[in-house]
């Protein structure tokens, strides 16, 4: 029979439903809150979920949205509530729930809903790409999602001001989370035509870095920009350049001014360091659900090691690392040693300073290695580097200049 997960914070309801479905021959697993439900869903892959809406930690609608956003809503979910409304039922159905049961739940209604759910065919195809909605425990990412949604209601064009560690693609994917149509203009080297735009109708056109576009691609961008309304497209572009610098590089001023009309400055992975374990774990879950990697989990030590990396290549670099880690280990759990093998060169950690030189030169060589290591680790954030090294910031700038190193004033704490 089926493997069914019951999620409800009321122990009496959990036990009653478990007894009924157990008598029907089903294998029932219980979860008292969203955190337990996540763990069971990932470990057991239930055939059906009965999910309560009103729970103390994370409500059922939010959990349903999370599963939908990260590609895990590939099992039927029946919502339950004693205080539901028609609007709540409609929203749950829109997100992906297959049915809605009002408490107290009658025996026949329960069995009928379970039977209908189990008769539904499995969701076909790979899950949609991850969006910001998948990261429900990150306050900065939740805020960014709200900002992105607020902007795109009133503008078809959004410019993301980014630097090293960019999460531009993740933000752009969140503009139209239910639409899979996606056109990467940087991947189109020939002149763009209306057929390509029509094929992406209702979707998103994206550029990860404006300054890398060729002249032909700049013309393609202008061509798409003029036809956004006709094909119901959103355009999301990102750059670490200013308007003036792009014009100096030969961009058409009128085009650049249109692109810069509405902009946001999303956080970088350096700003999101405390959220990197969650981001990495969700990326791994998504890759597993998509069938791109075997079933894997991260150890706590491995996640902490990922958190300590600088990730100058941003979201794309982190995603590639997670995929490589999942494919590069034979064990179900990705361990700290796996992260070290992939991301930390074997020579790092060894002090490559010759002892056959004067003390002053040896000390300078050590200091250069020390600051290079911590600049990399802290993503060139001078505030954190000052705290780590114990140096006053003015002294730190002077020391780095003396050693021929450069930190970044961008992204410093105010």
UniProtKB/TrEMBL annotation:
Keywords for the protein's UniProt record, in alphabetical order: ATP-binding, Nucleotide-binding, Phosphoprotein
InterPro entries cross-referenced by the UniProt entry: AAA_lid_NorR, CheY-like_superfamily, Homeodomain-like_sf, P-loop_NTPase, Sig_transdc_resp-reg_receiver, Sigma_54_int
Any Pfam family: Sigma54_activ_2
Gene3D superfamilies in UniProt: 1.10.8.60, 3.40.50.2300, Homeodomain-like, P-loop containing nucleotide triphosphate hydrolases
Domain Response regulatory: 3-118
Protein name, entry field: Response regulator
Record PTM 4-aspartylphosphate, positions in chain: 52
Species this protein is from: Aromatoleum toluvorans
Domain Sigma-54 factor interaction, chain residue ranges per copy: 187-327
This protein's record includes keyword GTP-binding: no
Superkingdom of origin organism: Bacteria
